[in-house]
């Protein structure tokens, strides 16, 4: 099975990316029927943005640690940090998509000028980077997961991983700026 996956990494990356993005856009556009999901209490929905902000902050730390470990040649620690980052990303995404599927996107509560000239551009860049990251993350994950560490060096993992980590990091940071604008500043 691992050999079959290894030979089909671009194809699997494409399939996983399309499925993931379909779920994201299905939730954001409210195409996924909310009746398919159990409805949590208001307290749970109120907590999700705050939990996700904490998850994002921890993910920033684990991504930075993973990059540092890779630069130091500590590849087992790099792998552990990046797997932790992926787990945090999945947790964030599940909570976010659940909330958006049931309640829709959060409206911006601040002034229209701030929304137009600050919030929406930040949100757009955050979302765009998150979308671009998905296939990059799948690609580097599949490369690393299907090979022993010594064989990863013969792949494009390092090059694509640098781009993926950088974009992922910026996306998480911008996500927290969006959170601050939605739930703290206004």
What topology emerges from the helices and strands here?
Layout: H1 2-7, H2 9-28, H3 42-72, H4 75-103, H5 112-145, H6 149-152, H7 157-185
Tell me about this structure.
The chain has one domain: Four Helix Bundle (Hemerythrin (Met), subunit A) (Up-down Bundle), CATH 1.20.120. The protein contains 7 helices and no strands. The termini are far apart. The protein is globular and about 50 Å long. It has helices at 2-7, 9-28, 42-72, 75-103, 112-145, 149-152, 157-185. By secondary structure, it is mostly helical. Keywords: Membrane, Transmembrane, Transmembrane helix. The chain crosses the membrane at residues 12-32, 47-67, 79-98, 118-144, 165-185. Pfam families: DUF420 (PF04238). InterPro entries: Cyt_c_oxidase_su3_a-hlx, DUF420.
Question: What is the CATH T-level topology?
Answer: Four Helix Bundle (Hemerythrin (Met), subunit A)
Question: Helix- and strand-based class?
Answer: mainly alpha
> Which range best describes the helical content: under 10%, 10-25%, 25-40%, 40-55%, 55-70% or over 70%?
over 70%
Q: Separation of termini?
A: 51 Å
Number of strands: 0
Mean pLDDT: 94
Beta-strand residue fraction: under 5%
- Work out the radius of gyration: 18 Å
Low-pLDDT segments: none
Q: Specify the overall morphology.
A: globular
Helix and strand string, N-terminal first? HHHHHHH
Seen as an oligomer or otherwise, the chain set is: single chain
Organism: Halosegnis marinus
Protein name: DUF420 domain-containing protein
Pfam families: DUF420
Keywords: Membrane, Transmembrane, Transmembrane helix
């Amino acid at each position: 099975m691992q050999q079959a996956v290894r030979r089909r990494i671009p194809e699997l990356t494409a399939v996983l990316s399309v499925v993931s993005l379909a779920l994201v856009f299905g939730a954001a556009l409210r195409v996924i029927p909310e009746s398919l999901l159990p409805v949590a209490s208001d307290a749970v929905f109120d907590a999700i943005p705050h939990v996700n902000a904490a998850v994002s902050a921890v993910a920033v730390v684990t991504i930075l640690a993973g990059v540092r470990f890779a630069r130091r040649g500590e590849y087992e620690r790099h792998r552990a940090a990046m797997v932790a980052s992926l787990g945090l990303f999945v947790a964030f995404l599940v909570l976010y998509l659940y909330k958006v599927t049931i309640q829709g996107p959060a409206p911006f509560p601040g002034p229209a000028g701030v929304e137009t000239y600050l919030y929406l551009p930040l949100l757009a860049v955050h979302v765009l980077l998150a979308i671009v990251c998905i296939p990059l993350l799948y690609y580097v994950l599949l490369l690393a997961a299907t090979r022993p560490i010594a064989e990863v060096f013969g792949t494009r993992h390092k090059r694509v991983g640098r781009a993926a980590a950088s974009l992922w990091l910026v996306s998480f940071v911008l996500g927290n700026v969006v959170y601050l604008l939605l739930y703290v500043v206004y």
